[in-house]
């Protein structure tokens, strides 16, 4: 469950005709943002196809650049104009039709490509002919990939590397519809498709507002992914909301750095917003550890991000401050502290008073021109957000959303100096809270499950009416499964502890779980492999990540560090620590936090081989509580006694062995 605080007054009002719901105060009695509008001449558009043409016309009045890329680390960015981008998408779309694909809503095109010019051009080609694209990505895993390809009947898939071709060929026998794999990345195969389109061009088949533009599959926590059906109406309402929100600080010359996964709705919404406003988009070379090099060459003004990366930026800045000479350090710290104290009176004018050296160093690390950073996907520490606002000289805002809403449901307002919340309802939706009695949450107390309604809400899950009915009620409200609180209070969310613990340089991920019927919670930590391996090398501690996680000296190191940070962040009164021997360290990443109110399945693999049938000693620890049978499922090696004992003590559950001949995922689904 994800817990948020959302600011109530004076930023939101009761919705007309629905007093239990809230809308943005700035929306007032106006209708929701359903259509796009050109920021230049007010021309209205209802699809991304039309929005792209508006962005093209805007860009013509300026430098006309659209999509940029680098060949290698030694090169500068090479740019395609909006006309060249449109021509390339037209050629690819024509080639698809000449190769046997049909225009319209019965054609699905797979995009198994990392962020690149080719990704977006392929998507535009689908927009031009009312086709539906289906993003694919490595972390889906083979069962999910097979499910997606078969459910959508994919015939054509674009890929960007040989490894992806081999993966698809391996799966081809289980996907009878797959007919062609097209390799991109400016190679001869890609050139051949463009030449086919150029020789036999096909007129565009523009979509309608109600048409789907993609099926975006959510990875979820367990089971097969669900395909969210997103329409042009959905995405255009989000694009227009962002246009209205950001217009005061942006103009037609903005540049976006693209590095967050384009397979996710969040980054897609950002890039489509940029295209409809005539902005430039520059793609990173693919190595997140060298992102600063890409930004130094691109010099972007817009930087979407996620808390994980912003926490890293915060740590880097803090390290820079520590490296300054004592006099400079004192100056930086003094100025930052002083400006934080009066941020409420003048949140924008802080840049003039901040230490120039610090701002220059921070901006240099992100290209030198960033004016807006926005973050979502998970909560960001208020301390980190406030610090970045002052240290970067940029607007830093936080929002909340999900795939089923094209990635934007609430957002902080520009100039709002407060932190610890995710803003107000977006102009394209209203929000209400509903009771969750099994968890003792009641809307009358301004806390409950977030429900969203508006033109941005998705059509449903592809070929899964049962799951659709579970999340969209008869009145059209999307039940998100997330818990929300309208007003500030003393409720302590797990994320509050998590975002504090991940500020430890040794911690990559922290997962805190508890429920109101138990007096204790558990925390499971994934150490930062780079930092931990470096520490082990410097202190002559042998072992790989899995082995290091079992060493008591490593547990002591991380245990003491998170206790230290907890004390600094004043949560020691909220957290009572046991001995470091009980600390649970996991060498592999945890699954996502998209939990379900009806049923929670958290599967921790602990380096379990992909072929689970060969994993001989498997143990499941299953706990059930609450009137609705809320379930938590843990899967671990029976030798991990400490883990199982901790879980058993926490949840008071029975340990059950899974027979070797039964697949773990099947067992969990049948519970």
Question: Can you describe what's shown?
Answer:
With 671 residues, the chain is an alpha/beta fold. It folds into 4 domains: 3-27 and 306-485, Luciferase, Domain 3 (Luciferase, domain 3, Roll), CATH 2.30.38; 36-283, Rossmann fold, CATH 3.40.50; 494-581, no CATH class; 612-670, no CATH class. The strands form 8 sheets. Strands 1-24-22-21-3-2 form a 6-stranded mixed β-sheet, with no helix packed on it. Strands 16-17-18-19-20 form a 5-stranded mixed β-sheet. Helix 1 (48-60) packs across helix 8 (265-276), helix 2 crosses helix 3 (117-128) and helix 10 (307-323) crosses helix 14 (382-392). The radius of gyration is 25 Å and the shape is globular.
Distance between the termini: 20 Å
Separate helix tally: 21
Helix content: 25-40%
Average pLDDT reading: 77
* Superfamily (CATH H level) name of the largest domain: ANL, N-terminal domain
Q: Which architecture of the largest domain per CATH?
A: 3-Layer(aba) Sandwich
Oligomer: single chain
What proportion strand?
A: 15-25%
Shape: globular
CATH topology of the largest domain: Rossmann fold
Note the main sheet.
6 strands, mixed
Q: What is the class of the largest domain in the CATH system? A: Alpha Beta
Strand order of the largest sheet: 1-24-22-21-3-2
The SS-based structural class is alpha/beta
> What is the CA-based Rg, rounded?
25 Å
